[in-house]
């Protein structure tokens, strides 16, 4: 089992001193040798990256998966659509929700911003996952790509 505990993540950060920390899927982390049992355990997992990021001054991105209800939503998921979203939201300075529209376009929205109020702003991203590229584009550029992708799918 290669799941890391919050203390193991902190040790890795101290050893390697990265410019940014990415935790891909919060609930795959471990609390010692026991399974996660609910909201209070998730709070422990969300507090640690926050305190580490603050203490060491390294930006930390933590990914979490939306629930099945979010797939029927037209735009990006809301905080309530994220498993344990309340616990995640309590410690997060910013929560950005994203939804893949086509293979080349992803729509995002800031759904929590502790130090600002720009919650209605949508982000449009051109994505080339195989090349590791994600670039912000305008809504008009996004719509053009969406139309091209959908026309290609219809052929």
Descriptive overview:
This protein is an alpha+beta fold and 155 residues long. The chain has four helices and six strands. The strands form two sheets. The chain has a four-stranded antiparallel beta sheet, covered by helices on one side. Strands 1-2 form a two-stranded parallel ribbon. The radius of gyration is 17 Å and the shape is globular. The mean pLDDT is 81.
Q: Kindly, what is the distance between the CA atoms of the first and last residues, rounded to a whole number of angstroms?
A: 45 Å
Instruction: List the quaternary state of the chains.
Output: single chain
Please summarize the sheet with the most strands. Answer: 4 strands, antiparallel
* Helical amount: 25-40%
Classify the beta-strand content into a percent band: 15-25%
Main sheet strand line-up: 3-4-5-6
Rg, rounded, reads 17 Å
Identify low-pLDDT runs: none
Number of helices: 4
Inertia-based shape: globular
Class of secondary structure makeup: alpha+beta
Write the layout of secondary structure elements.
Blueprint: H1 6-16, E1 21-23, H2 39-56, E2 60-62, H3 85-91, E3 94-100, E4 105-113, E5 122-128, E6 133-137, H4 139-154
Helix pairs in contact: 1-2, 2-3
């Amino acid at each position: 089992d290669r799941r890391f505990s919050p203390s193991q993540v902190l040790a890795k950060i101290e050893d390697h001193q990265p410019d940014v920390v990415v935790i891909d899927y919060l609930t795959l982390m471990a609390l010692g040798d026991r399974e996660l049992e609910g909201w209070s355990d998730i709070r422990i997992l969300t507090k640690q990256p926050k305190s580490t990021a603050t203490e060491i001054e390294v930006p930390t991105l933590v990914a979490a998966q939306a629930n099945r209800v979010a797939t029927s939503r037209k735009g990006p998921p809301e905080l309530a659509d994220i498993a344990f979203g309340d616990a995640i939201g309590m410690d997060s300075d910013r929560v950005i929700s994203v939804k893949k529209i086509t293979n080349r376009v992803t729509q995002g929205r800031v759904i929590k911003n502790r130090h600002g109020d720009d919650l209605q702003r949508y982000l449009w991203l051109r994505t080339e996952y195989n090349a590791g590229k994600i670039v912000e584009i305008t809504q008009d550029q996004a719509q053009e790509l969406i139309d091209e992708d959908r026309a290609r799918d219809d052929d």
